Amino acid sequence: MANDVYRLVYYSRNRMTGTPDDLAASIATILNTSQANNGKVGVTGALMFNSGFFGQVLEGPQAAVESVFERIQQDDRHGEVSLLAFETAPTRSFEGWSMGFVGASVPDAARYGAIVQDSGFDPTRMSGNALFETLHHLALDDEKLAAA
């Protein structure tokens, strides 16, 4: 059906290098570009980054989600892009997020991302549902903080 919402969950290895400030600037660029482009095609989602990995959920019309994912696969900042799940979803979980960054601020992720990785965030060992649930939980926490 044309109105179906598709959810895609993937992780990739970070290929960006540089100082923490360089990484923060690169992630800010990714977010700004994603928010502008995704809003135009009806894709919502959330991104998590640490020094080793990106984890992301994309939601929206099938063709749009596939197109966004294709661009990600071609992006030199992502390596070993691994699809964990791609399926219809009953509803969007990131309705108001053309692309949200969850779990920390961009500068903190660049500076302290290794702590997250060292603490066990290893998307190579997560199912698509586990990564989705992690991002969704963090997004809800971020929304609560923003509302407070």
UniProtKB/TrEMBL annotation:
Entry GO MF terms: blue light photoreceptor activity; FAD binding
SMART domains recorded: BLUF
Residue ranges of every copy of the BLUF domain listed in the record: 5-100
Pfam families: BLUF (PF04940)
PROSITE patterns given in the database record: BLUF
SUPFAM superfamilies attached to this UniProt entry: Acylphosphatase/BLUF domain-like (SSF54975)
Protein name: BLUF domain-containing protein
